[in-house]
Amino acid sequence: MNSQQQHTPPPQEHRSIEHLNDSSSRTPPLYTATSDVSSTSQDSIPLTDLHATTTSSSKESITLAAGVAPEVTLTESATTSTSHPNSSLKRRGKTQDSTEPILIDELANCDPELLPRPSEDDDLERGVREITVAMNEQNGSLAGLTTDEAITKLIDVAIEVLDEYHTPATNMQHFVKYITSIPSITSIFAILGLLIFYIYGILNASPRQFRLTGVIVEIAILAVIFIWNAFIHRRDLQLRGREVKDRVRGVILELETIRVQPGQELKIPSIPSVSTVRVIRSGIVRTLPSNLIVKGDLIEMVYGDAAPCNILCTLSKQGVQNSTQTQHLHHQHHHHYLSHSRRSSPTREFFLSRREIFQPSLFGTPLSEGWQKRHHELQGRYTFEVMETPLEHILHTALDPTPRPNSLIQKQLLVISRIIFFKVVMAIAFLAFSINLLRYVLKEVLQLHQPTQGPEQLLALPIYAVLPLLPLSLPTLLQISKAFTNATILVLFNTLQISKTEYEDEKDVDEFDVEAPPPTKNVDIARTEVWKRFWRLLTRWGNSGQDFDDGLTRSTNLVESLGGITVICSIDKEGTIATAFPAVEQLLVATEGEDTVVLDVLEDDLSPNGLRFEDKDWESYIQSLKPIGLNQLLNTNCGTLSAVRRRESHRKCNTLHYHCKTRAAQQTCLCRLGKEIGFTSEALRPFTLQKEILCYHPYVPMPPMTFGKLTTFEIPTMLSTIYHERAGDGYMVLTDGHVECVVECCTEYWDGTGLQDLNDAMLKKISDFYQTAVVNDLQCVAYAYRPLAIEKGPEPLDFNPSTNGFITLPMRVLPETDGNKLDPQSSDSGNPSSHDHDEIEEEPIPVSMQRSGQARKMDMSSLPDPVNIVIHIGGDSDNEEEERQYGASVEDQGASIARIDTGPLQRWRKLREMDLLQTEDDNEEEEEHLELAPPVDSQEFIEEAIQGQIFLGMTTLAHQPKTNVCDFIEDLGLAGIRFVYFSPASERESKAFADRLGLETDWNSCILLSSASDPFGASTGYLESYDIKAQLPRGIENIRPHLEAVDDIPLHVSLFAECGPEAATEMIKIFQDYGEVVCCIGSSLNINNTAAFAKADISVGMEPIKMNSSPESRSAFSLGAKINSLPCGLTMHSETSLYALTQVVREARRLLNSQRQGVVFMIASLMSVSLLLLISYCFLLPPAMTGYQILWVMWVIVPLLILSYFFSPHEPDTMTMMPSKNMSPLRDLPRFIFYFLARFILPIGMCVFVFLYSLHIYDGQEGYSFLFNSFGNGTPWLQWSENEQWALLYAQNYTMIIWVWYMVCMSSTFMSRALSLRSFKPWKNRTWIGACILCLALQFVFCTVSLFSGPHQVKDVPWWLFVVSFLWPILFMPIQEVVKARDLKECIRAQKLAKLEFNTKLGMHSPL
Predict the structure, then answer these.
(1) Where are the alpha helices (DSSP H) in 960-1046?
(2) Which InterPro entries does this entry report, sorted A to Z (predicted)?
């Protein structure tokens, strides 16, 4: 028995209805342009059964057969594949200049049976048909700009904007600014004072004082240092101001050299975080980033698209001649109309401002018949002219001269410099001058009567005392440290993105410890790469921004900002902190007894398909799941027929996305779920795609949602495909799409055992499930099915291969009821005039939708032919008694006749009532109006094919947090970093997604940033979720007053809902004003993110999608990402885990702590030199160190020690410490002064003793009367003998050696601020050990060279002096530990207070 005989449908009563094809009497109900893929069938064949055989492996291995699963061999599978959808398309090539594509000849008409079903690699070819045909106006085609013209305009705009911010500062201006600073004035005074002393000494010294040679050397060194610091200051200012400008120059260079090649990125989902636009270049439509279009470009817009800038519809120039409508068009308040009264025919300009959503209301409400017809002719794709260049706005935002806030360490250095110069330096200078003035007056003038010592004692000695406190080496050290730390961070970040190893906890960390630090990736940083990057950053002078890998190290204070982050703001969801494609969460199917069941689906990396059903008994619903799985596998184009196994979410490519705006759920391919249900690639090979029907409903009243116009405007859409199944020689319609569209076209539902009437009870279950999903941030996709039993006709089937089906469903007017009375004066969208109403009454359009198989029940366990639709194809029928029945189309009767009930359930119920009434009317007229069935490529066939379908079920999808994102957010809290998400959705939706992220969603957890009076506001206020209502501010304009007058709850909230780009940017400013260091992460392809990137302390631009599928489009999208992320310090790949950011923060904290401790040690050690000199003055003795010796320790010894701190190991609590806010940079100054004295008094005392005793030894005096004014036997200093001069030099060098030894020992205690030497072992830092050895060696060399020709010997000094002095650290090192222990207690107390403040969310109106 053949398959046709096996599957002959049971005898049924056939009915026919009247054709709605009389165009002379009324407008066709649906406007359609058709195109399909060629068919292989010639006969009228009923649909085969859906048969399943359970395999022994694990899942249902489903095949389609005529009662028995077909045996498919390798050869057969190759010949039974579906025909290629582009078999008759024109392909694209390149012209000779390789910039503009041209048309190539049509492909040969191949046998569709021999063409394989397109796989993932065929997406680009298939997309040619979908987007390359530009729209034609009545006066000719719209070619748009060429690529060369657009690139030239982009370059001109960039250069023009760059010139506006070109404010050259002359060298003299930089020099004057540097000269007028207090450190510079002090340095000039020191140089002049020493110069005066040198001149005076040369004229009055006798015998020759060779220390005067040291003075002239000191003057020269100070002059060179002064000029060098002026150069560094000028260079730093210029590089800081040129970083972003150099990046812009790099973009211009890339535009000039690379160009934007023609190409199409078909795998980019239409999500809010990716700003793309379809631009017409030379008559060819290309998808490009929104920031690469220019003024004068022509772009395609569909309903739901957001305007990338100010744009004007080209229909405004052409006009739509419909006087009835144009004279009475209304428009909502946020659209702009520009009327041209001088023109003979009435025309209007339809204008959209930046970020405005393109909606049908742009052309007035209600739409006239002419507009609907025009919309159908354009197939939903409208052409707009770009009125401005978005790049100009982006560059102005990125080049904003307003600097970012100074980092905390910069503020601390500024405060320390003020304290040192205005307090410490003044105090030491005053004390040194006073002591030497007393000595000069009492001894030199009154006692010895030799006033020749004035210049040295009153000028040179005070200068030596304050010289260590001048920031002579600090600018250079800061440049070196910044270059090295930035190089380390950049190389580490790049290494983390390249490395494929996993993030793991450290060995000594318990993975179940809730307070454990975040995991890290064990990567080896190439030290050679670090040193290369360090040298490039240190010596760079030219184009510092061309290389995006180098980051904005100066303008963003990269390491300081990363190490001090207190808030991380996410301004995007899709592709950044959540997956770009939503994942399946639930699947709803109907069961027996008018009931439904919801099956949970989980992502599972261990599953072969990457997901699994959470319910263990899911296989008991396999009969309900089979048609859904078949739908999901056939309505895709990802190579599933080629046995391609995809474990990650990916895009479903079809033409629907280019005619209307679809949400990510309808763009996501669910082939993995179909395979998890049990289908195999062999089971799909008998099916051949015949036609795609694109149906969308732009006029349907959407259900009342809790979100408003801040989110994307959604148009209900669905995709219906007609498949031919060769084994049973039958046809079927598979549909998936928006719930509103699918349910409206369904009359029955499948419960796994048979067909049931789609009654009110089931409609209510569907509606409740749908609305619950929407308010919980879920997206729904509904599925439907319809077998087509096509009776054989005299002519073969001829599916026209030139076009696809395109259907626009008009709005259906509900009948009047007691609760739905006619109210022509009140309408949500405005009412037409009485003249319009009269015209509508003159041409009434019937509304009909016949239900197939009314009140019919059939027992169909394996889903046989469930619908009694018999369509006679072509020619005259031999049997005029044959009947046909199919659902009729719907037509708009005018939205102003009756008020529309926007609830989906109520609307569906009323539609069912209308269907029943229409069915009765049609049945009465069937016998009188028998007509032949339309051909398969006709308008009527396409309209009827989508009606009378069987509802199969629904899936809910949601953007799930990326891998490790939830743990990342939790670890941020432990590190004292607050994660903040700015959501454009409503409060309920935002909380639903925040709950997935692990954020708190209960008390004081969400603040609405939209104003109540904002026309784009998303809600009326906060949800009343608690008995006691907290007083939270509403609107961004009320945040600051609330912080000043009420409480600081807005600074502790992690979720801000109904937030636009401007509100997010302003909230970042508020965070910064209250001391937060803000890191902003967002999509680098979102054109609206540049302002927030530019305002945050540090920004990270993340690629929301992989941009490596097409080399041509990759260059365009990579360039677009660079433009949007011009202010970003770092850029992150889409597959990079956010744990890379925590590891970079961890490294930045380590480097920042090392830098801070190095600065503290430098200040303390050099201050000890000043104190040492001051004490020597008190003993009325020469200085313990001379000027060039001070410069030696400032430029060699101390820098070597502090630079080695950057190689210190990580402290165990680095990522569990609360960071300090960027305010009140220094507190408890007296406590730190006490710490300094306690830690340095013993080393300074021993250095003074060594100096005094060495002078005593080499001076040859007996006793200890030398302590006060005994050196030199009263001889004036400028008349010292050679022996006395050598004695002083020996004593100073011995003192230097001892001081360096003490600083080497004490540097180990400064490596960690509070941890003891037992907890933090400094000898693990091998670089520090080498620096210590090098410092001691260099100091011995320095002393050896200084004393090489001296008359004295080292053995003249008693051995016990060296032993005692070198063992002296045994006494003062314990004091270091005691002081650090005391400081540790203060730190712990401060940390507890900081954590308490960080974790509390209690405000003035909290329920306590």
Answers:
(1) 965-974, 987-997, 1039-1045
(2) ATPase_P-typ_cation-transptr_C, ATPase_P-typ_cyto_dom_N, ATPase_P-typ_TM_dom_sf, HAD-like_sf, HAD_sf, TMEM94
